[in-house]
Amino acid sequence: MTSVSEEGARTRVHTASAMASRHRLMKVRGIWRKPVTYALAICVSLLPVAVMAQTAPLRIALFASFPPMAYRVPETGQLVGVDVDLADYVAKKLHRPVIWQDVSYEQAIPALVTRRVDLAFSLLDEPASRSRLDYVDYLLSGIQAYTLASHNPIKTLTDLCGQKLGANRRNGFGQIMRSWSDTNCVAANKPPVAVEETDGTQAARLELQQGRVDAIVQSSESVPYTMDLQPGTYVRIGQPLPSSRIAIGFPKGADELRDQVAAALRDAVTDGTYAKALAKFKLLDNSAANVISATGTQH
């Protein structure tokens, strides 16, 4: 017969043994649990950074009233244009969504410098701005003269000598055409082109329609769209004068993004997406495929 004291002693020994075993088990579990816990914590803390780097939206500035580069379809409000197609392609290559920022040309550079946007399409690659911006050239631009089909024929650019010519003062075309006139009209003892600067190309086109000027000049990339709006209304005068390159602009210090976008554009040239986008908007004559493939970036 077991005494009460012996039974209590056995209970205490059993309890102490169980607690010791449990303690040893917890220590063993702790040995493998803690590193795993720490590793998981590190992975969780690092994961958002990696995900954000891949999925942070690209804030892209463009000019949504500059067809065919970017514009909204009147019936639907859908944003379309060659800039839209190329930007969508680049964003998919970079696995990043897009936030469009509709700005004016005058607002684009300040928006880049202050980093309110990450990049901007349809900028002119101007040496004067390279201290503040980096550029990736993607289209060629020219100055195309045209007149009304109903106007007395103006067949060649030199036929503009002595004529009134409308030019948008915002893009410097007026000064370019005056210089051209000095070289090609005045130097040949012909009357100079009478350049009349206007507040925008639309204003110049209105003056042409009203008979106040004989012809106007316009960025060559936008002329096909203009002529498609009113078929048979306008006729080109000669070939476009070489002007400049159209570029994607980046703030200084955005080297990684600039190079990623340049690489994506090279891919677009290689796989045919670039040519397809230009053909869609009748801009094959403005192709800078050779520039994109040869140089990639313009610093």
UniProtKB/TrEMBL annotation:
<feature type="domain" description="Solute-binding protein family 3/N-terminal">
    <location>
        <begin position="57"/>
        <end position="285"/>
    </location>
</feature>
<dbReference type="InterPro" id="IPR001638">
    <property type="entry name" value="Solute-binding_3/MltF_N"/>
</dbReference>
<protein>
    <submittedName>
        <fullName>Extracellular solute-binding protein</fullName>
    </submittedName>
</protein>
<keyword id="KW-0732">Signal</keyword>
<dbReference type="Pfam" id="PF00497">
    <property type="entry name" value="SBP_bac_3"/>
</dbReference>
